[in-house]
Each structure stands twice: as structure tokens, then as C-alpha cells.
Amino acid sequence: MEYRSFADLAETVFFNAHAIPEDVDLIVGVPRSGLLPANLLAVQLHKPLLDLESYLEGRTPTVGRTARETIDENVRPRRVLIVDDSIASGESMRAVRERVQAAAPQVPATYLAVYGTRAAHEDADLIFEAVPSPRIFEWNLMRHKRLADACFDIDGILCHDPHSSQNDDGEKYRDFLLTAKPLLRANVPIKHLVTSRLEKYRPETEQWLAANGVKYENLWMLDLPSAEERRRQRAHASFKASVYIKTGAGLFVESEDKQAQEIAQLSERPVLSIEGQRMVWPGNATAARRSYVRRGESSGGAAKRLVRAVAFGILGDRTIAKIKRSLRR
Q1: Which residues of the chain have pLDDT under 70?
Q2: Which backbone phi and psi does 218 adopt, to 5 degrees?
Q3: In DSSP terms, which residues pair with 159 in a beta bridge?
Q4: Residues 6+ apart with CB under 8 A from 57
Q5: Long-range contacts, 3-8 (Cβ 8 Å, 24+)
Q6: What φ, ψ does residue 298 adopt, rounded to 5°?
Q7: C-alpha of 246 from chain center
Q8: Which segments of 181-230 are extended strands (E)?
Q9: Which pLDDT score, from 0 to 100, does residue 283 have?
Q10: Cα 5 from Cα 115, distance rounded (Å)
Q11: Burial (CB count <10 Å: 0-12, 13-18, 19+), residue 92
């Protein structure tokens, strides 16, 4: 599983901008994601910028007051750079190319995808970095199909964290749960919401999720009597790791970087840290395992899973017996 953040995007653009042909006089971004690197390139290279639709309609670019000293808004481009964030099959880029050639056949165009599933692609003239699938970008996380097979934290991702004055494990906290401000909004259903909120706050949590249009299949909450007991047991990461193991989900998305590291170590699976904006891997993950986390497990992997499951108390007797039988074969 590969992940790239906004910071990664800015760095990749910065260190590869030298590859842009010198005769490019106009940069065109493909909405919406292509506008991100297009803006970065326009600023770095001091070039005018348009979105794709404006270019196809023949509009003139506009720049800020200070930029007019170095950028000619009325330039007739010798070459235009068409920018998108990524390319996989090439279908989207081919559609863009056809529209550009039909609207402005007299202007040469260079087609750039910042990230490609491979280093070269027949439908792109330039690719800055090869990022193989499966992959997720910060800007498409909340609409990615991977959410249909993911565990997702709530506080610090879907809503802001409670302030210390709200975290009284009482009425102030209940009020927070009902009135918390949304942060990231998911456009697709999430398979598993996994939170260290206590089970006694399920009604308030479900009410907030419904009011904010969050679609999900399962809501996993920590069944302990109090926040004090949760702190005493230090149950946050261990609970989340146990659910990650039990569900067999393809990814866990966690708000806090430290917890992400703990969950990764306990589950031996990758965890996306929102705070750290990175994919956290268990310490002993090999390069091959990082490329693709297999759902099937060897007998050694099954044995480790059994030990963790018993320790966490997450599997029933029949399931444990089934795993034991598989180890004897």
C-alpha cells in the first residue's frame, strides 16, 4: 500500500519541475486533482495558469498584481502543459487529449501526470514518480474505494478531538459528542468505524454520525465502564488492533501518529497516520509485504494471529479451534 500526502506532492513537483520543456508558456490543470500540481508548477516556473475548461473555451489567464511584472497574461503559448495528478489505465488522460486536440490543434501540448503506476505510460509524455497500486493520496482518501474495506478512527479524522475541558466523561463530554464539528467528510461508505469511545456513548455517537451523513457498516466501541479504566488499561491501541485483526480489513486509518505505530506493531499490518501523513508499517515488514499485504497467511502467520487473538480475547472458541486445526495440517 503506497501513500502520498500534499507535502509529498509539493516535494515531487519541486524536484522534478526541471523536466518541463522550456517552451511551455501556459500551464493547464485538469480539475480537480490536477489543479493542485498545476498551481505549484505555475508558481515555481512563473507561468500563467488555467483550468482545463477555461483553456478549451479560449479564455485568457489572470494573475495577481505582483505577478504581472514577470508574467504576460495575453501570451500566445508556444506550448501548453496539461497537468493531472496521476495516471493508471490512461483512460482519463486520453479523453483530455482528444478534447485538447479538438479545441486547439495548432498549439503543441505536453501531458504530465505527477504519479504513474509505472515510470512511463503511452498516454503521458512525462511522469514524475512511479507509485504502483494499491495507492492512496491525501486528496482522494475520503472518496477512495479502499474505505469499503477499512477500519477508520473517528476523533481527529471525522470530527475534531474534544478539548480537555470537554473530556469529563460526563455531561460536557456528551455535549461534545452531539455537537462536534466535522473535519474530513467521506463520500463513500466506510466498512468499520473503530473508536476508543466507550460503549455507553453509542447513542450520542450514532446520532452525530447520522446527523452528519456518515455512512458506515459497523461501529466498534470500547466496552469499559469509565474513561479512567480505559486510561488504566491503556486500551486505546490494543482495542483498535484487535478489531483490525478480527475484521481482516485491508487498512486502518488512525488520527494519532503514536497510536498508529502501536496498532501497526500489534496487528502486524499497515496503518495510515493522519497526524503523521504517512503509512506506518510494523517494524519487521519486508519490502514485498509493504507492496502487498496478503490476506492468506502461512502457518507461522496463523500462529501469531492465534497468540494475538487469545491475548486480546477477540475470537470465539470455535474460531480458535479452526485455526489450531489448520496449524496441524
Answers
A1: 63-75, 284-329
A2: -130, 145
A3: 155, 182
A4: none
A5: 3/135, 3/136, 3/137, 3/138, 3/272, 3/278, 3/279, 4/115, 4/131, 4/135, 4/136, 4/137, 4/138, 5/137, 5/138, 5/277, 5/278, 6/36, 6/138, 6/139, 6/277, 7/277
A6: -70, 175
A7: 22
A8: 190-198, 216-222
A9: 82
A10: 12
A11: middle
- In angstroms, the CA 290 to CA 135 distance is 11
pTM of the full structure? 0.80
What is the rounded CA–CA span in Å between residue 28 and residue 6?
19
Residue type at 52?
L
pLDDT tens, 213-238?
999 999 999 999 999 999 899 899 99
CA distances to 36, 156, 237, 259, 321 from 280, rounded to whole Å, are 25, 17, 14, 10, 32
| Cβ neighbours around 319 below 10 Å, total | 13
- Listed in sequence order, the DSSP H helices in 64-129 are 91-103
Q: Cell match 502457518: residue?
A: 299
